[in-house]
Amino acid sequence: MSESERARGVRTWTIGELAGEFEVTPRTIRFYEDQGLLAPQRIGTQRVFHERDRVRLALVLRGRRIGFSIEEIRRIVDMYDAEPGEAGQLRYLLDQIAVRRAQLTQRAADIAATLAELDEVERRAREDLAGLTRPTPRRGRATRPQP
Amino acid sequence: MSESERARGVRTWTIGELAGEFEVTPRTIRFYEDQGLLAPQRIGTQRVFHERDRVRLALVLRGRRIGFSIEEIRRIVDMYDAEPGEAGQLRYLLDQIAVRRAQLTQRAADIAATLAELDEVERRAREDLAGLTRPTPRRGRATRPQP
DNA sequence: AGCGAGATTGACGTTTACGTTAAGGTAAGG
DNA sequence: CCTTACCTTAACGTAAACGTCAATCTCGCT
Question: Measured from the CB, is A25 under 7 Å from any atom of strand C?
Answer without folding.
Answer: yes
